[in-house]
Amino acid sequence: MRGFARFRGAAVFLALAANIAFRADVTAGHMFNPSGLPLGGTGRFKIEVSSNVPGDDIEWTITEGADCVAFVGGNTGPEVAVTATATGDFRLEANIRGLVITSPRVLPFFTGAVYPAVNVPVTVWIVKKGDGLPVREPSTISGLLADANKILWQRGLTLVRTGPYYLINNTNLLDHTDVLNPANVKLTAMLDATNSMGNAVELYFVRTLEGGAAKGLCWPEGIVIAANGDGHTIAHEVMHDCGLEDIYTVENPNGADPNPVSGPVSAERIPADWGGGYYPPGLAQRELIPRLLMRGECFGPEPELSKGIYLPRGTVYGWRNAGGGTVRTLGNAGVGQSAVQRNPGSY
Ligand SMILES: [Zn+2]
Which chain residues have CB less than 5 Å from ligand 1, an ion? Predict the structure, then answer.
């Protein structure tokens, strides 16, 4: 009966839009139920209840981290906003008048953290095509970074371009293959030739990666974005630079049996994102994974890569590349805040 609670004698679905049902709405300039927010930022949280529950009957409290967040515009209704006043962990709880909670169930809640607001300097390098024009118009870069920043916001990170747009006059560097090979001479040459920016993220725009099969890549020396990459690609690669790994819904997309992750979402499969058990009934783990920013590939009818923007608090169960290799194993992948090891940069 996960996802249901007794309410005034009726079974009412509380689609706790918890960390799980995470409603990504970056086009409106904000996202709901983030796992983190920057100091000084405003986070929005909401639960979904049946329409017969008056908004005034829903009252939120800050049960942990009262010095870290404060309500903005009141603490009642299905949706509330908090402003981040100090770094640290917080917990919000929603109490609904008339809602009968029986053990082991608990009130709907969200946990999160306020992170320092960090501006990350970015230097931009663009390879020129044979006709002399840059493979990516410099005038479009600021929009790409703005899109990436809407996603990176949940870690407190803001990419800020510094210096001019550096144009690379070498058509040999337009297309790259074998990009996972650390002995890749051409890629190494491009990334090393310009590695003089200290802790700035070096962002390289090229034409294709793996013949169009990859949109972006992250090496310690820099991030490379192909012509089919976008702001979402940049955010994904920046989080790789912070230490996060990819997660997949299937073991082998090209095999006779792709072997998808089976079974429903459970607390053990998202250990740091327990939302009181109010998950949409029947939500499969395979449906959850595509909501994540670190989802590594599309398969079959699954949503596009750019649809998932969620950075969970902790690990998530799914297919992952063990030890950074190409052999996939089932396990809890470091795809969230707990896997962040450093601020992004060039190393
Ligand atoms: Zn990746």
Answer: 246
